[in-house]
Amino acid sequence: MKQNNPKYIQLANDLKEKIDKKTYNTGDTIPTESVLSAQYSVSRITVRKAVAKLIDEGYLESVQGSGTYVKEKIVHDLFELKSFGEEMDGKDRVFSSEILQYEIQKPSKEIAQKLQISEQDRIYYIRRSRIVNNSIFAVEDTFMPLSLFPDLTYEIMQGSKYDYIEKQKGIRIKSSQQEFTPILPNEAIAALFQIPTNKPILEIKSIGILETNIPFEVSNIYYKSSEYKFTITSQRKHK
Fold first, then answer.
1. CB 125 within 8 A of CB 101
2. Which of 1, 156, 214, 218 is 20 to 30 Å from 129 by CA-CA measure?
């Protein structure tokens, strides 16, 4: 362990490195306080602070009466366009969505431009929280033209909007243009994530495009970065 930092940070960094290098895999129980205390020649209070830090950062989770485990992060492949339900499907997780706001309003100039509509047109504004294993890991703000989806109800948005568009409306989705930015959350988002406003999160701004090349939604999605990771697979082109 590097000697510059307080002992609990040194220990936390060492455990984090072991998790990153797969010495401890997802779902593994980490050694107990007494074992880590003896192994690193530190007090149990130091171990407790190090473990609490890694729980706060999303590396570990504590299960009462069972132990402390390496936490699984939700993986999002940037080259696959999937709904929330499709990403969670087949995984051993309990997931749900909760609608926090559902309104019909006029768009801002920025939203109108992105949706290629007039500022006098009407849109849906929907804020939803994405919940996995009773914990909010993402908050989504969605803006959709009323003219494209006049029958889009509150009940429909409790489920999958992609299913509604493709299966109920028979309209195919082509692509999504996405922009990723690390930001500090505002008070409302921080309160939902139960984190301080000085803890960075990830914001993804996206524009959804139909096969007809018409924009059908603008979304701003806020991710609790400790719960989520993104993967990119790059392929080398050969001449």
1. yes
2. 214
**Residue 118 to residues 105, 108, 129, 195, Cα–Cα distance (Å):** 12, 9, 28, 37
Give the strand pairing for 67-70 and 60-63: antiparallel
Residues 6+ apart with CB under 8 A from 139: 100, 127, 128, 129, 130, 189, 192, 193, 221, 222
Does the pTM of the predicted model rise above 0.90? no
Residues 193 and 156 placed together within one structural domain of the fold: yes
Bridge-based pairing state of the strands 215-223 and 135-145: antiparallel
CA–CA distance, 27 with 19 (Å, rounded to integer): 11
**Helix pair 7-20, 44-56: axis angle to 10 deg:** 50
Number of domains in the chain: 2
Cα–Cα nearest to 220, from 200, 202, 194, 193? 202
As a whole number, mean pLDDT of residues 10-14 equals 90
Task: Report how far residue 76's alpha carbon sits from residue 84's, in angstroms, rounded to the nearest whole number.
Answer: 10
Q: Write the pLDDT tens digit of every residue in 139-148.
A: 999 999 999 9
- If asked whether residues 25 and 83 sit together in one domain, one would say no
Last residue of a domain, one of 70, 105, 123: 70
Name the DSSP letter for residue 227: G
Nearest in space to 191 (alpha carbons), one of 231, 215, 221, 224: 224
Beta-ladder partners of 131: 96, 136
